[in-house]
Amino acid sequence: MASEAIDPKITVDRESEGEEEEEEEEEEVEESWDDWRAGEGEDDEWAPVASVVCLFCTEQFDSSELLFDHCRLEHCFDFYGVVKNSGLDFYGSLKLVNYIRSQVSQNKCWSCDQAFKCDQDMLNHLHVTNTCFKKDTKFPWDNDFYLKPYLEDDSLLHSLSMDDEDDENGNGDVADVKLVDRKEFINQVNVPNLEKLEDQFGKFMENGVSEEKGEENNLKVVRHGAAARERKEVDEDYFGSYSSFGIHREMLGDKVRMDAYRNALLNNRSLLNGAVVLDVGCGTGILSLFAAQAGASKVVSVEASKKMATVATQIAKDNGAEVITVVHSMVEDIEKKMQIEPKSFDILVSEWMGYCLLYESMLSSVLYARDHYLKPGGAILPDTATIFGAGFGKGGTSMPFWEDVYGFNMSSVGKELVQDAALIPIVDTIDPLDIITDSVVLHSFDLVTMQQDDMDFTSTIELHLKPSQMMDHLNWCHGLVLWFDTDFTARFCKENPTILSTSPFGPKTHWAQTILTLREPIAMCSENGRSVISTLTSKEIGTEKCPVATVRIRVSIARASHRSIVVSLEATGLGFDGKKKNWPVQIFNL
């Protein structure tokens, strides 16, 4: 089969060429190990073992033999000698490679564990090991943790295989580690060991490697279908959008946002002093800088945008924040990039909120980080979030503008725009004077205890005219406006609890509010106003002749496709005489 340029991380299994033709519409693609082997000619597009990175520096080589010769001559490290003298098997050699990469990333000598301030000092220190690593003793890399690749898609790991000749002769020593043909490798490894490799390697592909028994006995690299492809594409678009400095300028210029996080981090020093902090979605790293400034002993800043991870690294360096380590990764994949112990962080901080609080669905990553990396009793900042809602009047729509454009009536345009707004939510600021009902709580989240499924919810609220509107005989409710608060409560921020509010009654934020417009407005009045209006029971409820006392709205918010949400809204008008009217459900996709 001709080799195709596919993304090796997203794959689906194919069992026959007949299935290939049937599933062509779903664009499912298979690749075998043979397809991945380095090409014989210079024009081959795929060469997965094209380069291997040195264990100690950034130099790259075409083969592991050249790399290990370089390590022996330049860095006083004889890989083959250590493997043989220590009696390491295949898994032991893998652990050794990952252990050394982990030590070097921390500027530590792999042999004596001495730490240095910079990588150059560490390189200058490297020496022929003076430690006698005897067989059958506990090695510092003898931990299953080091079976996980320290570098994502580390070509060196994929090129290692053990020559077992000496073992067969009863020698017990491992003679060599070498590059091996993929098919030969498969024939050497039995199925249980292959499955162990798949599990403990993290499968080095996002969605795994599986064995297929066939004439060629190849390992198949498979694609998980359209859903996985779409998820990856959405993630790339999402994180790619955060590569623009414009959006970071907007967020950093949001005074409400910045003041809340700055106050929570800098004015709760007893919480931050000496703490180990995990910053999920660090962007420019501003929250990490606040944490470092407040006295954190270590900050791990996770950023999925490659460009922004590079930027955040430079910013931390420019500001002398040596306690900050920036990792280019999604938090769900961080263990592929660095050694990280479970439940090892004192504080988890993140600015995860999107429009209508839940748009972008980054909260799921925060909950993942909480469950995997936060110590029991550790702090989450912020630790609660609440969505509020209120009814708005005509001023919250575009109608007033179009009714008088330099003295001309263009209300036909306004009516069409209002119809469009009944299908698509509008993210914009709303004048508090245009809000005609009391504000109510739609839903609250406790980030310490909530689960992933809690992000989908249904709530029923009742809207009543606020006192300032009761003087008017009649008001028209044109829709529901939503906003949110996130709180840094006294549970963790004992010295200085802080609230970040996107309320229309407070200073503006870049989140603005989310405006859901009804297909048709609902007439409302107070008990006092009712006596003035001549209501007729035969008239339709919710009209000028028969306004309602209460608008009851059932709101459901659920995650739809990846990183988007759908909001459903069902309005019911409750009359003064107990009668009611239900309006058709409206669906808004955000």
From TrEMBL:
<feature type="compositionally biased region" description="Basic and acidic residues">
    <location>
        <begin position="1"/>
        <end position="15"/>
    </location>
</feature>
<dbReference type="InterPro" id="IPR041661">
    <property type="entry name" value="ZN622/Rei1/Reh1_Znf-C2H2"/>
</dbReference>
<dbReference type="Pfam" id="PF13649">
    <property type="entry name" value="Methyltransf_25"/>
</dbReference>
<feature type="compositionally biased region" description="Acidic residues">
    <location>
        <begin position="16"/>
        <end position="33"/>
    </location>
</feature>
<dbReference type="GO" id="GO:0005634">
    <property type="term" value="C:nucleus"/>
</dbReference>
<dbReference type="InterPro" id="IPR013087">
    <property type="entry name" value="Znf_C2H2_type"/>
</dbReference>
<feature type="domain" description="C2H2-type">
    <location>
        <begin position="54"/>
        <end position="75"/>
    </location>
</feature>
<keyword id="KW-0808">Transferase</keyword>
<dbReference type="InterPro" id="IPR025799">
    <property type="entry name" value="Arg_MeTrfase"/>
</dbReference>
<keyword id="KW-0489">Methyltransferase</keyword>
<protein>
    <submittedName>
        <fullName>Protein arginine N-methyltransferase 1</fullName>
    </submittedName>
</protein>
<dbReference type="Pfam" id="PF12756">
    <property type="entry name" value="zf-C2H2_2"/>
</dbReference>
<dbReference type="GO" id="GO:0035242">
    <property type="term" value="F:protein-arginine omega-N asymmetric methyltransferase activity"/>
</dbReference>
<dbReference type="InterPro" id="IPR055135">
    <property type="entry name" value="PRMT_dom"/>
</dbReference>
<dbReference type="GO" id="GO:0042054">
    <property type="term" value="F:histone methyltransferase activity"/>
</dbReference>
<feature type="region of interest" description="Disordered">
    <location>
        <begin position="1"/>
        <end position="36"/>
    </location>
</feature>
<dbReference type="InterPro" id="IPR041698">
    <property type="entry name" value="Methyltransf_25"/>
</dbReference>
<dbReference type="InterPro" id="IPR029063">
    <property type="entry name" value="SAM-dependent_MTases_sf"/>
</dbReference>
<dbReference type="InterPro" id="IPR036236">
    <property type="entry name" value="Znf_C2H2_sf"/>
</dbReference>
<keyword id="KW-0949">S-adenosyl-L-methionine</keyword>
<dbReference type="Pfam" id="PF22528">
    <property type="entry name" value="PRMT_C"/>
</dbReference>
<dbReference type="GO" id="GO:0032259">
    <property type="term" value="P:methylation"/>
</dbReference>
